[in-house]
């Protein structure tokens, strides 16, 4: 086995430089098709949810919008005025945020980077933008919440960073791995940041909570971590307790969850509790070996082949794409030519409870041979899927990406319960693509020109 350098391969697919040219214009407004050009069986355009592209790109002439109804504007800490636009596309295509500057734009010595999406829930998106202070090498991060719905014009609101008096220097910052957004009814929005404090006892953690209506951070120190014994992966709990997290996931209007895909752990908190507790629950399956780049194929890393998403007011859905041996004897990558890209797609459901033990319920298991045998899939590459995104409107629906040796990519929309292919498009989803329920107050015109990602 020859494990190729990972970084050089990641640059092609994970945003480091040589992504394929894919834009909403290549799929928006046209039927979802199989590679042969015929519409995929059961193709749908579900407008109840969107797949939010992890990348925020500079607005150009291909993005047509009415600035009065589609753009939301706010000043940054350096005095420039940032504008954000939302471009909607029905799944499995990705929707995107775009930005530009109202009036003068920061110069090369002041501008430090494009906005980065941190979290999303319901009608709102949390993102940051880094800027360089004038006459200084110091960078500052501004944080904003962009909200849009069909009923009212979009808004762009700045929020403060976690104040230094609440946290040790260099200890904590808002980030996409441990910070989540939770919509609590129409009038309240929470930003919740988890600090697991790996240099302190592992039975407690710190929570930093910002209530959007007050714009003030509150520290909840030494929040206890309670272990739920309802897990089913048979791994000792002490070996699984997360030290870091990969994602923060809001559920309903009161639960915030954090998952560690590598160590198979889940933490969740009922944010409506006066004295909150973090409850630990193992994921239902231990990640197996065999991940990485090989001369004869690629098996996506665990964080690129697993995903947790809300499936109701108090319900989680978990999907895991795992390599399997072609003979079925071992849940790991096979070394034979036929089985080197074999995999299974398995989904589980967990109902969040604070008063009794919980248990993962297996909902479906689909073998790669079942997917490959579908007529709409016949011309697609037989490789390991990656970057699954679960629908926030129908938890049985999962979208994932496949690519060929020439880096051409497709997004597949699949119904795991009925084992049917809903649609296939030329497109892209990434490791940080998020399900959301954003709506346009006035729909953006279809983008005619692809954007190079």
3D structure, described in words:
It contains 3 helices and 27 strands. The model is unreliable at 1-44 and 443-453 (pLDDT under 50). The protein has helices at 6-13, 67-70, 368-372, and strands at 50-58, 72-75, 81-87, 94-102, 116-121, 124-132, 139-147, 155-159, 179-183, 189-195, 204-211, 216-227, 247-251, 255-260, 265-270, 278-282, 292-294, 297-299, 306-312, 315-323, 343-351, 361-367, 386-390, 397-403, 409-415, 420-426, 434-436. By secondary structure, it is mainly β. The radius of gyration is 22 Å and the shape is globular. The strands form 6 sheets. Strands 9-10-11-12-16-15-14-13 form an 8-stranded mixed sheet, with no helix packed on it. Strands 2-3-4-1-27 form a 5-stranded mixed sheet.
Radius of gyration: 22 Å
Relative strand content? 35-45%
Instruction: Identify the strand order in the major beta sheet.
Output: 9-10-11-12-16-15-14-13
Distance from first to last alpha carbon: 32 Å
Average pLDDT reading: 78
Figure out the total of helices.
Answer: 3
* Sheet with most strands: 8 strands, mixed
**SSE class:** mainly beta
pLDDT < 50 runs, ≥5 residues: 1-44, 443-453
Residues in helices, as a percent range: under 10%
Shape: globular
Total beta-strand segments: 27
Helix-strand topology string: HEHEEEEEEEEEEEEEEEEEEEEEHEEEEE
């Amino acid at each position: 086995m020859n494990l190729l350098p990972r970084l050089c391969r990641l640059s092609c697919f994970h945003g480091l430089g040589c992504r394929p040219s894919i834009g909403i214009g290549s799929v928006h407004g046209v039927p979802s098709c199989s590679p042969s050009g015929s519409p995929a069986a059961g193709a749908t355009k579900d407008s109840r949810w969107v797949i939010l592209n992890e990348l925020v790109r500079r607005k150009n002439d291909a993005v047509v919008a009415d600035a009065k109804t589609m753009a939301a504007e706010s000043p940054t800490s350096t005095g420039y005025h940032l504008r954000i636009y939302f471009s909607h596309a029905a799944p499995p295509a990705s929707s995107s945020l775009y930005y530009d500057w109202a009036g003068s734009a920061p110069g090369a010595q002041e501008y430090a980077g494009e906005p980065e999406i941190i979290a999303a829930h319901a009608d709102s998106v949390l993102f940051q933008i880094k800027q360089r202070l004038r006459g200084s090498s110091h960078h500052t991060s501004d944080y904003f919440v962009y909200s849009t719905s069909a009923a009212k014009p979009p808004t762009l609101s700045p929020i403060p960073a976690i104040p230094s008096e609440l946290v040790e220097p260099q200890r904590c910052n808002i980030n996409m791995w441990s910070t989540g957004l939770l919509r609590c009814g129409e009038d309240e929005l929470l930003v919740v940041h988890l600090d697991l404090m790996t240099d302190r006892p592992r039975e407690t953690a710190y929570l930093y909570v910002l209530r959007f209506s007050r714009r003030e951070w509150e520290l909840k120190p030494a929040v206890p971590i309670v272990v739920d014994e309802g897990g089913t992966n048979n791994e000792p709990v002490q070996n699984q307790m997360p030290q870091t997290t990969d994602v923060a996931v809001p559920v309903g209007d009161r639960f915030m969850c954090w998952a560690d895909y590598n160590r198979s752990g889940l933490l969740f908190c009922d944010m409506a509790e006066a004295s909150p507790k973090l409850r630990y629950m193992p994921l239902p399956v231990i990640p197996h070996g065999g991940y990485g780049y090989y001369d004869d194929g690629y098996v996506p890393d665990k964080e690129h082949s697993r995903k947790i998403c809300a499936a109701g007011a108090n319900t989680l859905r978990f999907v895991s794409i795992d390599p399997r041996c072609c003979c079925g004897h071992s849940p790991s990558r096979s070394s034979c030519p036929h089985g080197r890209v074999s995999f299974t797609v398995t989904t589980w459901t967990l109902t969040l409870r604070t008063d009794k033990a919980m248990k993962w319920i297996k909902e479906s298991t689909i073998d790669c041979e079942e997917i490959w045998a579908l007529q709409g899939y016949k011309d697609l590459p037989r490789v390991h899927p990656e970057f699954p995104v679960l629908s926030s409107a129908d938890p049985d629906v999962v979208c994932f990406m496949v690519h060929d040796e020439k880096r051409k990519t497709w997004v597949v929309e699949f119904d795991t319960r009925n084992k049917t292919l809903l649609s296939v498009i030329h497109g892209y989803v990434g490791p940080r693509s998020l399900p959301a329920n954003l709506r346009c107050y006035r729909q953006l015109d279809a983008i005619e020109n692809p954007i190079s990602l």
